[in-house]
Amino acid sequence: MRCDSFGDGFNRSVVVTASASAPDQKLESSFHFFFRVFVESLPQWPGVGSAHVHKKFEHLIHTVLDNGFQNDVRTRMNGSCFLARFADDFVMGFNLKSDAERVYQVLPKRFERFGLRIHPEKSRMVQFSRPYWKQGKGPGSFAFLGFTHYWGKTLSGGWTIKRKTQGKRLSRFLSGIGDWCKEHLHETLAKQYGILSAKLRGHYQYYGVRGNFKMLEVAYEGTRVKWKKWLSRRNSKDRMGWEKFAAQVEEIFGLPKPRIVHAF
User: How many Å apart are CA 152 and CA 161, to the nearest integer?
Assistant: First the structure.
């Protein structure tokens, strides 16, 4: 579930609730059916300030989702299940399709009781079981917290859950880089370099997980392209080509290269 208008005011912590029968291995690897839920409408609290709205909404989600899953859902399932929530964004996982379908049908009704309505098009259930064949890709994928989760091959030929930067998040990042370069076209190279380096390091800090190096490279190369594009517009009579950009800019102000920050 996600509600962008409230995201920045939430306590930024991950809440994971799992059934007692869940194995000790990586939680996601044993569950076959996942679903994401988006809220389309929210209850109105007239006369309530934004800070209190954040608190009321967080309390409401905790009551409807966290407590409801722990007390009502988990005890009625025939198989293992779990809930992972980060602020107003969550996924549920089940190892039995019948359990997943049952909850997926009941969840909208429970939300409506508290003045919430689930978006019918952006909420979906996906099969996410480990593939048993050697060729092709694993079935299904889902996005959570800016990452696309999918089954991929290991170097030894086995299957594992991998994560890569969600496409629209990467596009948003590079679009923001281009907008910043345009707005600060005539700042000194040193200042531009400092800000762009900070943006890239922040991107690596969040998305620098094992298996996501290629997407980090796309972010790095895209930033170079945006920077060079707007620097070349400083002087219409002497456009900056890649050789000049490398010699006059990158030789002194080389942007930080991609790196994996998190080994998990």
Answer: 6
Vertex 15 angle, CA 10 and 17, to 5°: 150
Helix (H) or strand (E) holding 200: helix 189-207
pLDDT of 149 strictly over 70: yes
Which SS3 state, helix, strand or coil, does residue 258 take? Answer: coil
Q: Please report the pLDDT score of residue 44 as a whole number.
A: 53
Is the pLDDT reported for residue 43 higher than 80? no
| Cα dihedral 84, 44, 5, 121 in deg (nearest 10) | 60
Return d(Cα 139, Cα 151) in angstroms, integer.
7
Handedness of CA 171, 172, 173, 175 (dihedral sign): positive
| Cα-to-chain-centroid distance, residue 13 | 14
Does the pLDDT of residue 105 top 90, yes or no? Answer: no
In the chain, DSSP finds a helix count (H) and a strand count (E) of 7, 10
Q: What is the reported pLDDT for 14? A: 41
